Amino acid sequence: SSLLASRHICWAGLSPLACRLQVRRNFKVSVVGAAGGIGQPLSLLLMYNSMITELVLHDLVNVKGVSADLSHVSTATDVKGFQGPEQLEKAVRGADLVIITAGMGRGPGMTREQLFEINAKIIIQTVNAIAKNSAHALIAIVTNPINTLVPMAAEVLKRNQVFDPNRLFGVTTLDCVRAERFIGNYFNIDPKEVKVPVIGGHSGITIMPILSQCKPAVNADEECIAALVQRIQMAGDEIVLAKEGKGSATLSIAYATNRFADALLKGLKGDKTPIESAYVQSDLTEACFFATPLSFGPKGIEENHGIPELNDVEKLALESAVSDLKKSIEKGISYV
Ligand code: LMR
């Protein structure tokens, strides 16, 4: 389809070279874990992104069916499927963006950290494959526990001598999506009108919605604000409970991850990007990975917008979040 795009412009009278210069190359996105509960709806949403001309699906099972199914969607995106550990390298080769959703989700009574042992090996294997086959790809990790797996992934990339802190992300967009939705409900307004920074990490008290900086302003009493914050922090558990033993959130994560991927790709393309938070290497606090609002460019992170102004309650919450994150980060780094 990139050929089609350049032919199209050539017909308009430009040389093939001009075509290549004018048409920003189209993007190849690989989804690892594509046949799973998050991977399937995410891949469907990615099919609608006109910047993606090649969507590569990888999983351990069922990839053939999912990719055949998606290949009937009437968009210009090519779909390819690869299955099994032996095809992982092929699946990520030459990708501009690899989104990792592979691994186990939580069941009732579990914390995200309890998934670490189960999911660490999958992330190590995938990140090694990326390091060897698409070292310049942006990497977006959705698999939990994000707080621990992202620093661990950084370590794996360092060992392969290809770590670039501007290209590795833990996807925390779901926390922003939830904050927008819950605050939107509270005000009875469209969530799209809610702008609220969510910083920190992606688990319990490390999820820090900064309601003092919300637009429109949340003029509510302390108790009400505390309740909103707690709902955002515990929203993942709300879904685990509602699914009654059949896993954790999938559809809202797919929605959020698609939104994040779109911002990354706009950056790669050189367009002005929306600001999205993500969990990245950071020197803003004592936690060397920390989510803050970012904007993106052709090399990944273009600008880290830093920690927004905090009120006294939020300052205290930041201390607890940082101390929690430091432990998770240390665990990830020492595992490698
Ligand atoms: C979420 O926030 O819904 C996800 O991180 C899944 C989970 O385990 O809660």
From TrEMBL:
Binding residues for substrate, per the UniProt record? Answer: R106, R112, N144, R178
Molecular function (GO) terms listed?
L-malate dehydrogenase (NAD+) activity
GO cellular component terms, A-Z: mitochondrion
Q: Which InterPro entries match?
A: L-lactate/malate_DH, Lactate/malate_DH_C, Lactate/malate_DH_N, Lactate_DH/Glyco_Ohase_4_C, Malate_DH_AS, Malate_DH_type1, NAD(P)-bd_dom_sf
| Catalyses which reaction(s) | (S)-malate + NAD(+) = oxaloacetate + NADH + H(+)
- Record keyword Transcription present: no
- According to its UniProt record, the EC number is 1.1.1.37
Q: What class of enzyme is it?
A: oxidoreductase
Question: What name does UniProt use for this protein?
Answer: Malate dehydrogenase
Chain's gene name: Dvir\GJ19287
